[in-house]
Design a protein that fits this description.
There is one protein chain. The chain has about 230 residues and is of the alpha/beta class. The strands form six sheets. A three-stranded mixed β-sheet has the order 2-5-3, sandwiched between helices. It has a three-stranded mixed β-sheet with strand order 7-10-8, with helices on one face. A three-stranded mixed β-sheet has the order 12-15-13, with helices on one face. The longest helix is centred in the first third of the chain and has 19 residues. The protein is rod-shaped. The protein starts with a helix and ends with a strand.
């Protein structure tokens, strides 16, 4: 839309306006890009020109600063004509989303999708938040941010005294309870199922899964081939 708009103004500037103002004095277009409207108006008035705002867009420049002008600086034009300008609306803002309780992976996606950046990530033990979930964020939910702002996170390492669940699949049922106890856990339910793959008395699967973190003393349920 902006490109089409400027194309129309370019055509007007190139052919229409000159035909209307052919009998006026000529002046050199001053450079007003980067100026605010007040200063630009003074400069243009002193050159017997004036401005017309044709569009506004978000920018790193402060609100009201001129980003673009047509005709360009140093071009010779007739006096008493408009200079078409695009001005800055300032930086686009966004509300800080709530990250507390979601996984750090989800938090990364949400942060990047909102045009923000991730800063430092600290990991701490927590009895209240699961492992790899966000405990806190450096900027509170709902606060107005500028695109590109940086968010720091604190992420849970899970309870401090969790240990890894041993792998039981493939082991014999005989003596497995002592093995589980020695690893810091307790034997839970034992279910027997038919199996064409495992030898009778061999553990087929377990819950919780091996290599996951769990509190010492938790029960491990197993399924055994019969």
């Amino acid at each position: 839309y902006i490109i089409v708009l400027f194309l129309l103004f370019f055509i007007a500037d190139k052919w229409v306006i000159p035909s209307i103002v052919h009998d006026r004095d000529t002046v050199i277009v001053p450079d007003i890009e980067g100026k605010d409207l007040k200063d630009a108006s003074k400069v243009l008035n002193s050159n017997n020109l004036y401005y017309e705002i044709v569009s506004e867009q978000y920018s790193a420049k402060p609100e009201g600063i001129i980003l673009k002008q047509i005709p360009e600086p140093k071009k010779e034009v007739k006096s008493k004509r408009p200079i078409f300008i695009t001005i800055s609306k300032g930086k686009e803002t966004i509300q800080m989303p709530n990250l507390i309780g979601i996984s750090v992976r989800q938090a990364r996606v949400l942060i990047y999708n909102n045009g923000l950046n991730i800063g430092d990530i600290q990991y701490r033990y927590s009895d209240n938040y699961p492992k790899d979930s966000v405990i806190s964020q450096s900027i509170s939910q709902g606060r107005e941010l500028i695109y590109g702002d940086t968010i720091n996170l604190v992420v849970s390492k899970g309870p401090e005294y969790q240990i890894y669940v041993p792998k039981l699949a493939g082991l014999a049922l005989d003596g497995i309870e002592n093995y589980i106890v020695n690893q810091g856990f307790k034997l839970g339910n034992v279910e027997f199922v038919e199996s064409d793959t495992f030898v009778a008395g061999t553990i087929i699967s377990q819950q919780p899964q091996s290599n996951t973190l769990a509190m010492p003393g938790e029960y491990i349920n197993i399924v055994v081939a019969k």
